[in-house]
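notes to self, project folder thing:

trying the whole complex as one job this time. last attempt i did each chain seperately and stitching them together was a nightmare. two parts in total, labels are on each line so i dont mix them up again. if this works i'll redo the older ones the same way
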Amino acid sequence: MNLSALIDHFEKIYLDESSRNSELAQRLTEIFPSEKISWVKGLPSQDSGPLSAKQFGQSKKQLYVKPFEGHFFKRCPGSTQKKVLTCCNYYVLNLGQQCNMNCSYCYLQSYLNTPAMLMYSNIDQALQELEEMAAAHPDLPYRVGTGEVIDSLSLDPLTLYSRKLISFFRRYPKWTLEFKTKSDCVDQFLDCEHAGNVVVSWSINAPQVIDKEEHGTASFEQRLAAAKKCVDRGFPIAFHIDPLIYHPGWKQNYQTMMTRIQESFRPEQVHVLSVGALRFQPEQRHMMRERFGMDSWVTSAEMFPSEGGKWRYDQGLRQEMFDFIIQGFKSVDPRWRIFMCMETPESWISAYDKTPNQVPELKELFRPLPRVPSELQV
Amino acid sequence: MVAKLPMTQWSSTPPKIEVISQCDKSLDFNPLHPWPQGLPAVAVNRVIFGGFSQNFVFDHHIDGREAEKIASLFRSLYFELSFVEMARLVDKATAHVWFPISLVVQKFGWQPTEIFFSTATALLKTPTGFQNWCAEKKMHPQDLSPLLSAGDLDLKWFYRDLLTLKLSKSQGTRALELAVELSLMGNDVKTLEAQDNESSAEWLERLTLLRYPETSQRDADQESWMTTLPWPGTSQARWTRQGDRAGVEVKLFVSQPSDLKKYLQGLSRVQDLLEKDRGQKH
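result (full assembly):
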């Protein structure tokens, strides 16, 4: 979505009084028509408890700006399931919550209970936290992403946070910043000087899956075009083929996706590829069904309870899909770096005959790192 | 001399004894448990809260703005209320703006969220027989989540079969979800409703096969192939599914160490065949 589309998309902007002097609040008052803006002390009428399907949909159209209270910087939640999953030591920096786009499988449907999209106004505090960690461990290869509970870039034309982050990470070239997005919103930071350590990544899927299940996102070709712009400016890029969704003709459709990626980029231009299969918390299926019906390839999927509690495809089917994708890249060029996200050691052994810290090109990603302050506090 | 009734914790004036015909019974949500026969009904501002069939009523006067007192009084009258009863109460309470329904819902341990109220509304659109089954089985709002997707689906066949086959709570919860999903996926009712002489377990299994056709076929194919393998003599091998994993469960009976050695040799041959098959698939 470009800026004017974002202005049309949001029905209401709530600016918390405590953010009145923030750059973000001031910028939004300049961008949005005044009738959409309200200054508030807390969100009006917030029930506790899970959101209904209607409330969840409505929450994407309301933006609430406030300071974040807590630690911005923490480990990716996959790491909390170390007994069942093999995780890559990714860290997350949450600059907001919710997403203005509408993917049928989105795990935010089982995660969020705030009736508006949140954007945090105190980015300087986030940078301060990063500063403290980076100063303590400047030479360790921390990878920090901003796209865990919000799309990293879909609102960036409003916030311009990318520019501050890119500037910060210039000072710590051994650290990596990752933007993860389903948008094509890159123009607002392409002119920034960077240290080659800012990875712009796209969640990507077969074009047919994007059209059917990823509502309001950039098309497959739009994402590739945005990626090319980033490569031309020297930014490393990455693709997260996640979630793999089983559907009629899946092999042909995913082959098309792989061929287009391979035609568009060389392996050395793509920092990493990750692949994950559809998975969700069991209670999420009710909201997905209510919001998207049973025509969706996601709601009609044949899913089962797995170790760790999430519902997943049959293990054998997952393996077949992973093997197809991994071989689809490796057989063309073994230099493609590809790993599985939030999968079990058994999946790794089946795909690679090894665990990830035994795979040379992936070893660095899975290297244990010192814990950050938020992990050390009880 | 007539004994003066004491003041209560809810009202600043003692309750009055009235004949029930003077009072409004429109909050009657059809409670499941009978009111104690020896006690009069209880009302607030002449609206009956409990004891709808009694002849006399204690009527408390409480300012309609005193939501906490009203809710506390109501809570004190019922040890517990099922979700079905709460749903009916929510429906009846719409005629009484002063009745603090959200507070009452909370006092009975439920969260008065939009999902709660939507599920209550959806439940009240189902037949009374199904509602009574839900009350008997102590169904929670989460168990009834599929109703929120059902919209205008005609599920009479399902409610009929559920009651006829006397499904348990877990069976009924699973069957409801399967029925809603399969109906939304366009399956003909004739293929979904219980067949003659079909048990509840058989019906549920058939609905599951309909919902998971590809996995069921893969499992069936694997099971056929598995039976051709040379499992050791008296071992019992069966194909089974545990969540997202399907595989073989092998039972061995060992009465002496040499039995174990024979089994291991036999299983080693099966292992070779399994690895060869896996290699071919890759």
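what i see at first glance: DSSP finds twelve helices and six strands in chain B.
need to look closer tmrw
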